[in-house]
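Weekly modeling sync, notes
Attendees: AB, CL, MP (scribe)

Item 1: holo prediction request
CL wants a bound-state model with zinc ion before deciding which constructs to order. AB pointed out that an apo prediction alone won't tell us much about the pocket. Agreed to run with the ligand included and paste results into these notes for async review.

Input as submitted:
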Amino acid sequence: MYCFIIQNVVRSNSIKTKKWIGGHVPYVIDKTLSTNKSFLAEVKAAMDAIQSSTSNCIHFFPKNSTNTDYINITTADSGCYSSIGRIGGVQLVNIGDGCDTKGIIIHELLHALGFWHEQSRTDRDNFVDIKYAHMILGTQSEFDIRPDTKDIVNAVRYDFHSILHYKYNQFAKVSSWDTIVPNAEYNCNTNPRNANCVYKTALGQRIGLSRLDIERIQWLYECKAARHDCQNPSIDSMSVIPSKAYYAPGSVIDYKCDYSILVGPKYSTCLPGKKWSGALTRCLQGNFFQDVYYCDFAECVRHWYLPVNYTGVSWKKAWNVTLGYGPDVDHTYQTNNGHVKVARQNGTI
Ligand SMILES: [Zn+2]
C-alpha cells in the first residue's frame, strides 16, 4: 500500500517550524473506525510504539476542548495519507483499506509529526538512484526532494531501513521495474564488503521504527535522550576533527591527520548512550611507514598473524605482512566492529 502526502499550503524552509508543541499530539478517532476493534487496536499499538520507543518524547492523547490543533484518524477515504507536521486546526490521518496495520499507521503518524519520506531528503542522491522513467505517469512528484529536510541531513544519517522509505518498485509502471535503487556503494549486489550494504528488497519496511527513526523523532522534538549525546572525541593532537562540542546521535565525524598516519577508523558515528562507534582513532607519529592496510582486528589476525596488542590500538611488530595481501578497504565502516589500520614498518621500533 502506498502513501500520498497532502501538500501543505504554507511552505516553510524547515520541518522544525511544523512541530507539535512539546511533542503533545491531541487526536480524535473518527466514527468511521471507532467501532472497529481490531483497527483501533492497531492504531493504539502504533501510538504506543512511538511513545514508548522515544521514552515519551511524543505524547498522543484524546483531544479536549482546549486543543485547537489536532489529528483526526479516519478511514473515510481510500488510501493512506497525512499532512507533514502540524498545520493548524484539524488535520486528517487517513488509513483506508490496506493501511490498517500498525507499521503503516506508524508511517502516517510520522508524517503528521513532521517527517517527509526518507528518499525526499536533500542528500538522497548520495544513497539511492531514482529512476523516473520507470514510474507511472503523474507519480514522479512523489519522489521530489524536499528542501526543508536539510536540517535533518546534518543530524541523522540516511536510513535505508526507515519506516518512511519507499520500497524499490514504488509507483513502478511494471512491477519488475525498479524506481528506487541503493547506490553502488551501499548495494549488497555491487559492494558486499560494505558491512552496511542493503539489498533493494530491504527498502520500504513497514514493520516498525528503525533505530534512526527513533533518533529522528528525538532530534526534531529535542528530547533529552537525543540532545548533546556525544562529546567531541579527543584524539592525538596532530589530527583534524570538527570542533563542535556535542553531536546528536547519527552524526558522523571524519578523522584526518595533519601529517603522519591515521590508525583506526576514518569515520565514527555518534550512537545513543554517548558513545562513538568503532575503535579509538589516533595519529601515529613518524614518517617511516611504508605500507598501510585497513582491516578489522579479526581479519588482521586471521590473515596476517599479527602479534598485536590491541589495547588502545598499539602494537610493536608486524610479521608476515605482504604488500597487496589482505583487505584494502574499510569494510567495517559505520559499524560497531573494531577497526585496525596496519602499517608495515621499515626499520625497528
Ligand atoms: Zn508516506
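Recorded for review: The radius of gyration is 24 Å.
Action items: CL to compare against the apo run; MP to circulate these notes.
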